[in-house]
């Protein structure tokens, strides 16, 4: 099957379509490193993605639970202190219990998000060889056409991980679109316009939560350096002939401080709440925020990095766009003394994000990775 054959292009942006047949400047290594690429190449079948009985999606993509807390960001920023306090308290509670919440009135224009998504669709619809020109060699930045084929865990998705610096972003887009200058310029402009406000929004949420825990507002955000792991990620889940036996992305928690996610109208994101998988309803006017492992560990486990996953379907391709906010990769992170009490003794050992990320990748993105940072992992 040809790469991206399942993609519907009808909702794409008004930009000129890049020429699919274009000659790349450098020859590209096309041997499959990732599952979805191997599937597109005819080297893997749907059956090869089948999960074990226990792991199969028990809840289909169209079933939702609307009890997820909703936080009004404008109320925190602008309104009376009463409304502000109520929303901060609700956000803190959601970050502790769910590790997930929905934000509304966040000020990032939905048209911009949709434009970034449309550019992502254009990217995923390119012939495989062109996507491979920015293939992530090590599952970090670039195109990851699924999970590494050598893993036991086979993911039904393609992803594009974008490092949030102007230089890295320019390099990546120029590499994929060497001749379509106008399209490349628009792609870069849209991403930069998107990353700026997403970064500010992430910092704001982290700082509100930090203050809510009784710490100085910038306790964690001051650890953001040029060596931080702020990342944009676009996900494409192609339609699947047997969606009940596979997972787009299996249950995992995100590594960084937090993630802000926009999903299209198809549905498929699910969060693990009290041992049950709960479907999160798509909604154009809100984002979903989730706490990452780093934030859980450096708040001594007060905040909760929720496991989540994406299920797929047999009717429609699904896309999601995520902004991951991270702090310095290699600084040794420790729990602030203010969060250690007699009732809540120190739970996590000092660690670096780089070390945690390596553990996660080496272990094929396990469900409860943060446990390995516990002083007593058996507890
Ligand atoms: O596509 C989704 O809804 C989930 C994506 C996700 O969890 C991730 O990219 O880390
Ligand atoms: Fe995630």
Automatic annotation (TrEMBL):
Residue intervals of the Fe2OG dioxygenase domain: 225-327
Keyword Ribonucleoprotein: no
GO-annotated molecular function: 2-oxoglutarate-dependent dioxygenase activity; metal ion binding
Domain of life: Eukaryota
UniProt cross-references to InterPro entries, sorted A to Z: DIOX_N, IPNS-like_FE2OG_OXY, IPNS-like_sf, Iron_ascorbate_oxido_reductase, Oxoglu/Fe-dep_dioxygenase_dom
Region named Disordered: 1-27
Alphabetized UniProt keyword annotations: Iron, Metal-binding, Oxidoreductase
Family recorded in the similarity comment: Belongs to the iron/ascorbate-dependent oxidoreductase family.
Protein name: Fe2OG dioxygenase domain-containing protein
Organism: Physcomitrium patens (Spreading-leaved earth moss)
